[in-house]
């Protein structure tokens, strides 16, 4: 028997993918999903960071079209970026297998919203599996590949922060599956989604989902635990763990697949209970579906829809307690590191009372006191579009204070189309974009990106120079400055640019303090290898 | 302390204090002793010096990975300013292992406070001391072996 291991949920997904014969893992870093591909690389999988989740999903789909198995990883908001791929590859289906591993963040440990990925399952017609611990993460990723291969459909594995970042025991299988041998099989009506083909494929998708639902009724990963209290609880994912601890006497139906749902199984379970509950994290996704199917389950009080669940909160739900909850312990908030190069830039923006359209990364921390030097942050790349919109309509004196600020990884992810807009529809006062290039994707733990010139495993690859790209796109004034050593020059360049009606990009380049040592050692290794 | 009951340990402090490292050692030691173990932590923004806590639960079967309020059996707090924030997590009669008790303990360097606190904790848990030492050697690079083993011993000797 292979040895038991202590693994995080993310590590267990990586190991399960390797043992399911996955040929390539793609993705974009995002807490809490980042460690999946990093660990997959460490244990010998082929892994890459793509520029963004959409491209990552497209590469994975290509792998699956070639008859191999692919996994694409992202955080919940990443699926918004990749949603265009998801919806239509649900129609086309796949030749090998394709699993979207999507990590939600109930409680917003490190995210901009609390969206519930399970909604995408219904919206796109893609089956969803929800593991509750590391063993299930390992088992369900393999099951996801099996379902994907059997029904030629993409599958979503929905992780959550607590499943991804909790370490628990995993018993791996003795004999991993070998990877498939890829080969191209032409299927034009199956993969060219023009209306004539897609109409037929939509019907095929609905038929597949009906079959998967039937399978789920009898063979799906659902667990029935008998109880003695007359209380019956339907649950899924990490919420089922809290619920079992909060109500050890209750009967449980724990659903491993939450779309499509096994309604016969659920209604049959509920029939025998005197008091019924659905315990789930985030949206009332199961409640809505079960009620629509005729199941008598109550809505949970709205306050439990927000934040992550805990044993204490489940106890309150079971008691019907809607009194105000005790506040969460208030710890020290995160902050920009001492002497962080980003800080030097924001000091200047604050000094001149700039209106800062910000973006996603460490530098978002500049919005917090004492700097309080960022005015908006919505989604990856939004700094540029939002900044341009502000410039278009604000009175001229205010418009001239608007600056967009974006990091290097976020620029490669979603900034290029923003610059396209900047060149295509420039505001009358022009615009200024500052790219904070710290040579790493710092916030998620120092991952590489196309502007660092290194792949996921830190080995060298082609490097994209941000200043060359924006020049080629038609930005007239492009300056590269060190925000620490050329601070006065940076201030001067910015003030001049704000006065003109031209388009300016300032690349503020200085490596992240935390990453600088590692970056030097990667560069050293590169020089030493012929 | 062989028990079916779930025992709850929380390690709390600030980013950069070695909370994730010490909770990794603790979880592995418990796993090797044959317990079901869950270790839950929230990282992400912790690198930026924010508060970090790690919950380690062990027993015959551990369900939720997070310790319910007021059910912590052992609370290890590395940053003095976090003590009052974390105190409500402690069970009545629960044991607090506090950074300030190490003020007069000679440690090879203050960075190994996390391991010294594990040394103190090890006196309360019925686990073979060799397994602790083995894990310290496994997890740290060789140049940090001596200092961390010494810190572990200093922590063990803090309890009579």
Strand order of the largest sheet of chain B: 2-3-1-4-5
Total domain units of chain B: 1
What radius of gyration of chain B results from the CA coordinates?
15 Å
SS element count, helices of chain A = 20
Mean pLDDT of chain A: 96
Oligomer: heterodimer
Number of domains of chain A: 3
Instruction: State the end-to-end distance of chain B.
Output: 18 Å
Note the total helix count of chain B. 5
Spans of chain B of 5+ residues with little confidence (pLDDT < 50)? none
Category by helix and strand content of chain B? alpha/beta
Q: Can you name the CATH architecture of chain B?
A: 3-Layer(aba) Sandwich
- Which class best fits the helix and strand makeup of chain A? alpha/beta
Can you tag this structure with a few keywords?
heterodimer, A: 530 residues, alpha/beta, Rossmann fold, seven-stranded mixed β-sheet, five-stranded parallel β-sheet, 20 helices, 42% helix, globular, B: 160 residues, Pyruvate-ferredoxin Oxidoreductase, domain 3, five-stranded mixed β-sheet, 5 strands
Topology of helices and strands:
The complex is a heterodimer of chains A (530) and B (160).
Chain A: E1 5-8, H1 9-19, E2 22-27, H2 35-42, E3 47-49, H3 53-65, E4 69-75, H4 76-92, E5 97-104, H5 118-124, E6 128-129, H6 134-151, E7 155-160, H7 161-164, E8 166-170, H8 188-191, H9 195-219, E9 222-225, E10 231-236, H10 237-246, E11 251-255, E12 257-259, H11 263-271, E13 275-279, H12 285-292, H13 311-319, H14 341-351, E14 355-357, H15 382-393, H16 396-399, E15 402-407, H17 408-424, E16 431-437, H18 466-472, E17 477-481, H19 487-499, E18 503-509, H20 516-528
Parallel strand pairs in A: 2-3, 2-4, 4-5, 5-7, 6-7, 10-11, 10-13, 14-15, 15-16, 16-18, 17-18
Antiparallel strand pairs in A: 1-8, 6-12, 9-11
Helix pairs in contact in A: 1-2, 1-6, 3-4, 10-13, 15-17
Chain B: E1 7-14, H1 19-32, E2 36-41, E3 51-59, E4 72-77, H2 83-86, E5 90-98, H3 113-122, H4 129-139, H5 145-156
Parallel strand pairs in B: 1-4, 4-5
Antiparallel strand pairs in B: 1-3, 2-3
Helix pairs in contact in B: 1-4, 3-5
């Amino acid at each position: 028997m292979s040895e038991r291991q202590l693994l995080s949920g993310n590590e267990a997904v990586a190991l399960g993918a390797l043992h399911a014969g996955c040929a390539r893992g793609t993705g974009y870093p995002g807490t809490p999903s980042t460690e999946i591909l990093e660990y997959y690389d460490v244990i010998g999988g082929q892994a890459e960071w793509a520029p963004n989740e959409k491209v990552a999903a497209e590469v994975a789909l290509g792998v699956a079209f070639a008859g191999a198995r692919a996994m694409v990883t992202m955080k919940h908001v990443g699926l918004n970026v990749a949603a265009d791929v998801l919806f239509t590859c649900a129609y086309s289906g796949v030749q090998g297998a394709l699993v979207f591993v999507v990590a939600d963040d109930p409680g917003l440990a490190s995210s901009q919203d609390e969206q519930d990925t399970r909604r995408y399952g219904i919206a796109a017609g893609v089956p969803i599996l929800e593991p509750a611990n590391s063993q299930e993460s390992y088992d369900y990723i393999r099951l996801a590949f099996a379902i994907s291969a059997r029904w030629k459909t993409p599958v979503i594995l929905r992780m959550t922060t607590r499943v991804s970042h909790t370490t628990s025991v995993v018993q791996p299988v003795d004999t991993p599956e070998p990877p498939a041998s890829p080969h191209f099989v032409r299927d034009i009506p199956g993969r060219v989604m023009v209306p004539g083909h897609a109409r037929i494929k939509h019907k095929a998708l609905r038929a597949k989902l009906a079959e998967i639902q039937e399978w789920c009724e009898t063979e799906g990963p659902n667990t029935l635990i008998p109880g003695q209290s007359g209380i019956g609880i339907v649950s899924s994912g990490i919420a089922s763990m809290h619920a079992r601890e909060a109500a050890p006497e209750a009967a449980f139906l724990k659903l491993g697949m939450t779309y499509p749902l096994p309604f016969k199984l659920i209604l049959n379970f509920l029939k025998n209970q005197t008091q019924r509950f659905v315990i789930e994290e985030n949206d009332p996704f199961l409640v809505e579906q079960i009620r629509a199917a005729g199941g008598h389950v109550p809505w949970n009080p709205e306050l439990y829809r927000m934040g992550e669940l805990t044993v204490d909160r489940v106890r309150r739900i079971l008691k019907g307690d809607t009194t105000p909850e005790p506040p969460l312990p208030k710890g020290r908030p995160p902050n920009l590191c001492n002497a962080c190069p980003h800080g030097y830039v924001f000091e200047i923006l604050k000094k001149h009372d700039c209106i800062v359209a910000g973006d996603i990364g460490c530098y978002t921390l500049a919005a917090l006191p004492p700097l309080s030097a960022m005015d908006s942050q919505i989604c990856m790349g939004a700094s540029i579009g939002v900044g341009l919109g502000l410039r278009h309509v604000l009175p001229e004196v205010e418009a001239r204070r608007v600056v967009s600020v974006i990091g290097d990884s976020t620029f490669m992810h979603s900034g290029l189309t923003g610059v396209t807009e900047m060149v295509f529809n420039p505001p009358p006062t022009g615009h200024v974009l500052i790219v904070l290039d710290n040579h790493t994707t710092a916030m998620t733990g120092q991952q590489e990106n196309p502007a660092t010139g290194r792949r996921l495993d830190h080995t060298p690859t082609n490097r994209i120079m941000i200043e060359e790209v924006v020049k080629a796109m038609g930005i007239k004034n492009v300056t590269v400055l060190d925000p620490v050593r050329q601070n006065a020059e940076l201030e001067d360049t910015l003030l001049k640019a704000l006065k003109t009606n031209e388009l300016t990009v300032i690349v503020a380049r200085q490596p992240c303090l935390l990453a600088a040592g590692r970056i030097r050692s990667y560069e050293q290794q590169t020089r030493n290898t012929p | 302390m062989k028990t079916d009951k779930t025992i709850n340990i929380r390690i709390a402090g600030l980013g950069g204090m070695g909370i994730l490292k010490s909770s990794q050692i603790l979880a592995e030691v418990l796993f090797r002793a044959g317990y079901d173990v869950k270790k839950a932590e929230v990282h992400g923004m912790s690198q930026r010096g924010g508060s970090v806590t790690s919950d380690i639960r062990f027993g015959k079967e551990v369900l939720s990975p997070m310790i319910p309020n007021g059910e912590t059996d052992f609370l290890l707090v590395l940053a003095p300013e976090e003590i009052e924030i974390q105190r409500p997590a402690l069970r009545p009669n629960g044991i607090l292992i506090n950074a300030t008790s190490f003020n007069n303990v000679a440690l090879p360097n203050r960075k190994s406070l996390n391991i010294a606190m594990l040394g103190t904790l090890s006196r309360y848990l019925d686990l073979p001391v060799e397994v602790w030492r083995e894990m310290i050697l496994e997890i740290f690079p060789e140049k940090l072996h001596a200092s961390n083993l010494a810190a572990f011993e200093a922590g063990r000797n803090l309890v009579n």
